[in-house]
Each structure stands twice: as structure tokens, then as C-alpha cells.
Amino acid sequence: MMGIFIALVIIFLWLGHIVFALLFVEPDFLTFQPYLHILLQTFLYTGLFITGHDAMHGTVARNRKLNNFLGNVTTTLFAFLSFRILAKKHYQHHLFPASVKDPDYSPRSNNIFIWWFTFMKNYITWWQILSMAVAFNILLIWFSEIQLLAFWIIPAILSTWQLFYFGTYMPHHRPHSSDMSPHNSRTLPKNHFLAMISCYFFGYHWEHHESPTTPWWKLYQKKKEHDKFSQNNFN
């Protein structure tokens, strides 16, 4: 039940804030207000995707149909992404992390920009672009281009960077070391507050690969267990 509750909270916070921003926030970039709303909407976009990601692992709801429904809702709201395609590729990522068979990995280049471009190319489809274009033009009936860019499009793009940097590039980039085994994944050295605001504890990435059925809001507990185990072994 907690997974469903948290998923619904994130969905309604995302929806409520974007409606509020579009209706009541003036996109005047000579003031600080729109920047704050862009950052907040970016964070909520990231929460949408993290919720969809947890649904790929079946941890949002015990009922499979409800779990997949919430996964479809969150990935569609994020950017008309296909939950089915995402789940299939994410399964490959966990089977072959940071290898040539990993669709999230860039074996040819460690450059963050080349890797991000390759990463995005693997997930963007013509159907998605068409859906975004149709939705954008429908929303133009009520809102201006600058409003939609500021509070809908830009936060989504920034969120892809947040997810990619903290959830893919930093945990999996080369060189790989022995402490990253057996998942070719490292955990980012952050306290729990910074881990939460940076990417919903997704920087605790070794722990996620070690226990993929642990929902994002419990990953800090896995991090504590891992740290305690490491300290006991070291001592």
C-alpha cells in the first residue's frame, strides 16, 4: 500500500504543480520565480520516472495489473515513453550492467555528452515525438509557447540529465573497480538528504543492483546495511 500511496503522491504533485505553474506563474526570466518552479518541476519529473522504474521491478503495487498501470501512467506523463519497451531494456541493463549488451551503457566512449546522446537515442521513438508534438499543439489552445517550454518541456529535458547523471553515468562510468562487483556499479558518497534531492536515492546504485526489488524510498536502508557490513568486515 505504501508504494501505491507514494506513487499517487508523486503523480498528483507533478500534475498539481504543472497546472499551477502554467496558470499562475509568469514566465518572466528576469525574476527568480520561474527558475524555482522549473527546478521543482524537474524534481517532480524525476520522481515520475523513478516511480515508473520501480514499477518495472514490480515494487509499486503487489497487484501486477495495478503496478503496470501506474508504470504506464508515470512513463506516459513523463514524455509519452513506452513502459513495455522501457521495462524490456531495463531488464537487459540489470542482466548485463555496464557491458556491450547493456542498452544504457556506452562502451565506445566515456564522454558524458556522447554517452547521453547514445542513451537518449536508444529510448526516443518517432511515436513519442509525434505524441509530444500533438500534445504541445493542443495545449497551445490555452497556453503560450514560452509557458509550455518553461514549465513542461525544459523540466522534462533537465530531468533526463538528472536521471542520466546520477542513475547511469556516475554509477557505471569507467574505470570499473573491484568494489563495483558484481554489478559494475558504484554508490555515490552522499548523505541521505543529498541522495534524496539529487535523484531519489538513486545514487545508491550498487544497492539498487544488489536488491532491485527494493523501492526507491527504502534504498537508504540498504545503504546503511551495506555501510555497516563494510565497516564490520574492514574492522
Key features of this structure:
235 residues, 10 helices, mainly alpha
Can you tell me about this structure?
The longest helix is centred in the last third of the chain and has 28 residues, at 145-172. α1 packs antiparallel against α2 (33-56) and α5 (112-123) packs across α7. The chain has helices spanning 2-24, 33-56, 64-79, 83-95, 112-123, 126-139, 145-172, 192-199, 205-210, 219-234. Helix content is 68%, strand content 0%. The chain has one domain (2-177). It is globular, with a radius of gyration of 18 Å. The mean pLDDT is 90. The protein is mainly alpha-helical.
Largest sheet: none
Mind telling me the C-alpha Rg? 18 Å
* Helicity level: 55-70%
Query: What is the number of E strands?
Result: 0
Q: What would you say about this model in short?
A:
The protein is 68% helix and 0% strand. The mean pLDDT is 90.
